[in-house]
Amino acid sequence: MKNRICKICKSQLQGRLDKIFCSVKCKNSYHRKLRKSTAKAVLCTDKILHRNRSILLEVMGPRSTQKIVDRIILDQKKFNYNYETGRFKNDLSRIYHRVYDFSWTDFSEQEVLIIRKR
Ligand SMILES: [Zn+2]
After folding, report:
1. How far is CA 42 from CA 15, 30, 38, 50, in A?
2. Distance CA 60, CA 81 (A)
């Protein structure tokens, strides 16, 4: 039979065959490492996405749910069009780019339509 060892401390595993860790301590340590690595890796992307949302909120104002703005305004605020949290097509096959609770779409050559989900 194959020697079964703990994924973290490499000590011999006892008991159930599907066990991966020798203890709760090793299991927690493993997941802590995963979270730490992910937190570090996503920091840059999260920053850009958060910034994009802030720009959309600032441009829209806190009360409106739909607004057409000049692309230049977003450009000046350094909106990053390449980062989104998702996208969808409406009934007219227009592609909307999601940024959390906001979405934007190319409205014309110089204009962008921003909508906010309530
Ligand atoms: Zn262990």
Report:
1. 37, 19, 6, 12
2. 17
Closest CA to 88 of 102, 101, 99, 98: 98
CA of 14 to the centre of ligand 1 (A): 11
Cα(28)–Cα(44) distance, integer angstroms: 26
Please identify every residue whose CB atom is under 5 Å from ligand 1, which is an ion: 6, 8-9, 22, 26
What's the DSSP call for residue 113? Answer: E
For residues 95 and 115, give the distance between their C-alpha atoms in angstroms, rounded to a whole number: 13
Q: How far is ligand 1, taken at its centre, from the CA of residue 39, in Å?
A: 24
Contact predicate 99/61, CB 8 Å: no
Q: What is the pTM of this model?
A: 0.80
| pLDDT higher than 60, residue 117 | yes
Task: Name the residue among 78, 70, 81 with its Cα closest to residue 108.
Answer: 70
Tokens of 73: 């305004």
Of 116, 96, 110, the closest CA to residue 56 belongs to 116
Given this model, what pLDDT does residue 1 score? Answer: 57
